[in-house]
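Bit of a strange request maybe. I'm writing a small parser for structure token strings and I need a real example to test against, not something I typed by hand. Could someone generate the tokens for this chain?
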Amino acid sequence: MANVYGYARVSSRDQNEDRQMTVLQELSIPEKNIFLDKQSGKDFERPAYKRMVRRVRKNDLLYIKSIDRLGRNYEEIQNQWRILTKDKGIDICVIDMPLLDTRRGKDLVGTFLSDIVLQVLSFVAENERTNIRQRQAEGIAAAKARGVKFGRPPIPYPDNFKDIYRDWKKKKMTLRQAADACQMPVGTFYGKAKKLESFI
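Reply from user aminoacidic:
Good idea to test on real output. This should exercise your parser:
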């Protein structure tokens, strides 16, 4: 007997998957058959997706809320679609796009229409991913131009740094001893020492 599955994806752990999960649960899909990834859609190296592909069998049905939940890489979406529908022999229904329901129109015209719609939507999904990356890069550049600092704040020089630095340069102590005396990791002490040298 054919089983019904659902797949949901959000791009990061702090994004909310409730909307997708609610839609899938309303279709009476058993909870054990709903797979969720909290990961980027740039490729299909996702644990839940891989488990789902291993589970599905010929004539099973897979529901997805929208094509971009499947992925955001144009070629890979189409490749995975072929694997699922041709190699695994399952049906897919994209809830937000009724034309992408492989149960309907299995004749030549229906398949042709589905292929066209899939290509257009895959392209849109990848294009949106590209736009998101570009907007992020522009936002970071604008923030840097305003003086916003990214990453951890630099560790300040301790009061005794110059004295310890001089002793280290005169080989009175090892690099490890100097770093310990400043209560810093070795790499941090060395980096700050090189920076200090550029000002001397």
